[in-house]
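So, can you check?
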Amino acid sequence: MTKEDYINYRLDRAYEAFEDARLLAENDRWNTAINRLYYASFYSVIALLIKNGIETQTHDGVRTQFGLKFIKTGIIDKKFGKLFTKLFDFRLKGDYGDLFDFDKDIVLPLFDEVELLINTVKAEIVTPTKR
């Protein structure tokens, strides 16, 4: 698999996870929908890091490198850094928190934001900002 193949694979996974989140939301599976929204974002960010030769080993590493290389530099709008961190925290709460459930009022507004994040990241992969 080439580097480009791997980047495209990760982007495909991002869109697949996003669609999975929609299906889960349609069935009121809010905690799992949050999980898939996080992974949709995560996969797209991983593709961006790979495109730029940035290696990470952990989810925190992905968040850190995304923040340092793309958010703090202004290449990607800081609202997406905040969103990615919020999704990370929500995923942990939904996956591991006891006696906690998300609801549609929290989850549904995230769909447009996550879709925009994925598309913004993809655009940066396809046509990188001059640095």
The chain has a mean pLDDT of 96. Residues 46 and 62 are 7 Å apart (CA to CA).
